[in-house]
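Deviations from the work plan: none for this task. Representative record:
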Amino acid sequence: MKTLERDGRSGGGKTRFSPVILIVDDQPMTLSALRRMFVREGYQVHTAANGPAALELLEQIECELVISDYLMPRMNGLELVRRIRERWPRVSCVMLTGLADLDIAAIGIRDRLLCKFVLKPWHGPDLKASVLEAILAGRERAAPGLAPGG
Amino acid sequence: MAVRQPDFGWIYELYRLAHHAALADDPHESRQKFLKHIVDAFSATGGSLCEVDERRQSLTIVAGIGLPKHVVGSTVAIGTGILGWVADHGQPLLLNGELGCDRRFRKRVRRGSHRPESAMCWPLIVEDRTIGVISISRGAGEPSFSMEDLYRGFDAIRFVAIALENARLHTRAAQSVRRVNELMSRAEATEGHLQRTEKMALLGQLAAGVAHEINNPVAYIGSNLVTLKDYAEDLLEVVARYEAALEQRSGDTATIEDARGGIDLEHTRRDLRALIEESLEGVSRVHQIARNLKDFSHSGDTTCAPADLREGLERTLAIVHGEISRKADIVRRYGDIPLVECRLSQINQVFMNLIVNAAQAIDGRGTITIATGVLSDRVWIEVTDTGCGIGPEDLPRVFEPFFTTKPVGVGTGLGLSISASIVERHAGSIEMESVPGEGTTVRVWLPITQAGDRDGQTVVRSAAS
C-alpha cells in the first residue's frame, strides 16, 4: 500500500515544492491515474485502498493533505476524514467522489472536515488547483506569512 | 286431427336434435331445428323456445318460428306474459280463443293485441327446475289444440329437457372456457409488462450505482489522457532538441545531455506503457458495463438456449457492483454446473433481484455468498446474506405481488413474485429459508433441459461443455 514517488523533475539547488499527500480510493486504476498526475506536479504521493489502511499509513508518515473517495468498502470517506481531522487536525482533506451527494458535501464542510469537495470525473487543472489551494491554506494556518514555503 | 302421433321414432329424433344442440358449433341453428321438429309434429304455424337465465329472473327467446325477427334474442321477465307464467308455475298451458277471456291473463295481455287462435306452452323441467319454455301455436281458421295434444307433447318434451339442459351447460362451459382463455392471455400480457416494469424499476434503483461504475473508469481514463498529453509534449520537446543538436552536427555528448535538460524521460518511459494499458482496461470496463446493461434489459429473448449461469451471475454482479460493494463482501462458492437451457436475460433478472434483495437486507456491512451446484437433472443457485432476515409471519408472503417490508420508494414489491414466475416458467422452483437477525438464503432450482419450449420455438440444444 505504501508507495513513495520522487519528484519527476530534477530540481536545481533551490528547495523544491514537494508536499506529501495521501490518496485513498478502492479503485487501483484511479489511484494510479491520480498518482501519476500529482507526481508530475512534484508531490510525494502515498496511496491507500481503504479507510483503515489510510489511518494505519498516517501513523507512519508526515502528510499535509488527504484526497479521499466517498464510496469505499469498510469505511466511507466521510467517516475517514472525521477520524483524520480528530487525530491530525492539521491535515487538510479533499473529497473526490462520483457520488454527487450534497448532504455529504454539506456535512463535510459544516463540520470543517473538508476544505474541498470535487466530483469524478475530475478536471485535472481544477483538481490540481484545489489541492494546491488547500495545501497553501493549511500552511498559512500553521505558520502565518510563511507560505508557500518548502 | 292433423297431429302426428308422437311415436318412438319422433321422440328419438327430438332427443337427437336436443342432444345435437349440446354439441353444435351453432347453437341457434340447432335449437331452431329442434323447435321446428315440434312445430311440424303438431302442424303448428309458429313456435318459440325460451331459456331461463342463470339468475332465474328472465326468459330469453333463443329460437322462433313464425315470429317477427327481432323477437329472437329478446327477454321476458319471469312472471310476466304467458311464457313468464308458464316458467313461473312449471305447468303446461293450453290456450284456445281470445286470451283476454282467460282470467289468469286478464292483467297480463293487452286487449286487442294480435294473439294466435290456439296455443300450447310447455315448461322444460330438469330436476324440479324450470330451465325453459316451449310454445307452439296455430293461427285463426286452424283447428284448435286439445288437452290430449298438450299432455302428449308435455311427455315428449319432459323426456328431452335434460338434453336441452346439456346444450345450455355446454354453451355456458364453452363461454367460460373462452373467458378463462381471454383472462389468461390478458394476465400473461400483463405479467410480461410487469416483468419489464420491475426490471426497469430495478435498473432505476441501480442507476446511481451504475453511473458510479461508469464514472470511475471515465475519470481515470480522462485524467490519464491529460497526463499522456504532458508526456507527449515532453517527448516531442526532447525529440526537437535532439533534432536541433543533429542540425548543428555536434558530436558533443554534453549538447545531447542538455537536450534532456529538466525533463525526466526515465519516469515517462517507465510509466507510459502502464498509463496506456490501464486506460485501455478502463475502456473495456466501460464497454463491459454497457454490454451487461444491454444483456439485462434485452426483453426480446423468448427462446431457450444453453447458457452458462455462472457467467450470468458474474455479469449481474458486474452491474450491481457499485450498489453492493459498499454493503457486502461477495463470496463465490461456484460448484461445477453444466450449461442450462434457459432464457438467460430473464434468469439474470432473477439473479439481480436476489442479489439486490440480499444487499438491501444487510444493515451496515455483511457478506453475500453465491453458490451453485447440480443434483441429478437440476442445477441450484443459492444467494445467502447475513442480513436482518425475515420473520416467520412474513416468510410465507414474500412471493406475493406487492408484498414488501422495504420502505416506500425502495423496491416495487414485485421482485420476488416476478422472479418466482420466471423460475416457474422454466419449470423450476424457488425456496427461501430465513432466520431473523441471522440472514436469508434463497435457492433457485432449474432443470438442465427444458421439456418443450412454451413458445413453440425450437429449443437450441448443444452439448454442455
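Residues 118 and 127 of chain A are 7 Å apart (CA to CA).
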